[in-house]
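In this supplementary section we document a worked example of the pipeline. Step one takes a protein sequence of length 559 as its only input; no multiple sequence alignment statistics are reported here. Step two produces a three-dimensional model, which step three serialises into C-alpha cells for compact storage. The input and output of this example are shown verbatim.
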Amino acid sequence: MKNGPIGQYLVERGTITQEQLDQVLAKQRESKGKLFGDVILEMGFISDVEFTKVLAERLNVDFVDLDNSEELRQDIVKKIPEAVARKYTVIAVKLTGKRMQVATNDPVNFYIFEDLRAITGFNISPVLATKAAINRAIGRMYSEGQTNAIAEEATKEKEDEMGLEELKDLSEERIENAPIVKLATAIVENSYRAGATDIHIEPFKDITKIRIRVNSDLIELMTLSPALHVSLITRFKILSGMNIAEKRIPQDGRMSQVIDGTTVDLRVSNLPMVYGEKVVLRILAGDESVRKIQDLGMTDYNYKRFVSCLKVPQGVVLVTGPTGSGKSTTLYAALGEIAKPNLNVITVEDPVEKKIANINQCQINEKAGMTFGAALRSILRQDPDIIMIGEMRDTETAEIGIRAAITGHLVLSTLHTNDAASTVTRLVDMGVDAYMVATSLIGVVAQRLTKVLCNECKEQVMSTQEDNELMEIDHSVPIYKAKGCPRCNKTGYKGRTAIHEILLATPEMKEIIAAGAKSEQIQELARKQGCRLLRDNVSQLVQQGVTDIGELVRVTYAV
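The serialised model returned by step three reads:
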C-alpha cells in the first residue's frame, strides 16, 4: 500500500483504524477542499510528528526533528532570506558543497525548490518536517540576538520618543515599528520559545529585570534601563485591556500574540511596587490540540487506575496539587478522553485556559456576579452529562459539585492539597458532610511536576545511605545528578514530567470516609489497596536516571 492513498497506508501500518479513516474521509468531504493531513490532525487521531514521519516513509524522504536538532546553524539558515523562509515555510538545515538541504512540509512542490535555487544559488534537496516545527525554528533562528539590539534602540530613542499614549493616533504600521512595541513583542516571543510558563517584569532602583520561569526555576532573560519601564508596562496594559491611567491598584487582564504560527494566550497581572508597577504574564496553552492522558508521564499502572475512574458514569474525580503542578492539563486530557459527540460537557473556569472544540466553556466574572456558585446552579439546569469545575475554592462550590455528582453527573474538579488522602479531609473541613463525600467520590489524583535530567550532561554516582533512606531501599544503586551544559542552559535539567498518586474510592474506603477517618488512616488503606504514593513514583524515576535526589526532596519532602 506504499503507493496507495496515505489514509489506507496509515490503516495498514496500524496507526489508525478503518473506522477512524472513514470518519476522516467523511469530514474531508464535508470541508470541501481541506487536505487529508489537516483533517486527521484536527480530529486528533494522530500527532503532527507521527503523521509527518509516516508521510516521509511513504515519499522516501528523510524526516528531521527540528525541535530537538542541534544541527541548525545561523550562517546556513540565513542563506535563505527570512521573508522567503516564512513565505514558503522552509528552513535551511545543511550545506554540502553546492547542495543545500532544506526542511519543508511540502516536499513535492518543485516550484518552491526552483525559486530557492534561483535565490540562493544552491541545488536544493528537501527533507520533511512538521509545519509547526519549521515555524518555531524560523522564529528561533532569525530572531537570535535581536532582542538586545531592539532594547538598545528603544533606550536610545527614549529621550525624544513620544509616549505610548500618543501612539494611538499613529497608523498601525508605525505603532508596530515603534522600538518599545517591538521590544514587548520580542520579550514574549523569546520567553515562549524558551519554554517559559511565566514572564516577570520587575522594577528596581537602577534597572528593570526581566526573568522567566523555565522548569519551575526563575532565570534572567535580560535587564533594561529603568527609563524604558513605564513605556513597556504601558504597552502590556494596553494589550491586556487595563486602565493605563490607574497606577495605584492591582489590575488583571488578558492578551494574545501570534508566535511562529501559534496563537498564544497570556494572563496579565499588574501590581504597584516601590519603584513602579510589576507585571507578570502567565503563558497559557492557547488553542493547541488537547494532550492525551498517555502523554502526561503517567506510568501504565497509574494510567489504568485513572481511566477506570473516568469510566464511572456519575460521581466526582478530583485532581489535586499546588499551583503550577499541571492539574488543568490533566483535567483537559481527561475531558478529551471522555467527551463524546452524544454527551453534553460543560466547564466552569476562572479563567478558561484552553479553548476546546465541542465543549461548552463558561468564564467566571465575579464583578458581574458570575461566581462559581451562580454558574454551577445555572449549569445544572443546562442538562449536563459531564461538568468540569476549574477549582473547588469554597464551601458553596464544593457542596454544589458534590450534590451534582450524587444526582447523576460526572464531575471533574481540582483542589489544592498535598496528597490524595488529605483531599478527603479537606472537603470535610470545608463543610461538606463526610457521608456525602463518601457517596460521591470516585477517585483522587494527586500530582506534581518534577524536572527531568539533561541526557547530554547528567553524571552517574552511587547512592549514599541518606539517598537510600529517602528512596526507601536497603542497598546502594547507580543514580544520576545534574551537571549543566549549553544544551540545558547550564541548569542540568531539560523539560519536566508528572508524577501521580491515585486513590480509588473502594467500598471499604467509602466506609472509613463516612466514619470520619483521618488522612493517615485513609493513606494507609489506600496503600494497602495498591495506591503508589508520590514518593514511590519519584523514587522509581531517580533509580531509572530520569531525575535526581534533589527533585525527590523538593517535590515530596514532608516533615
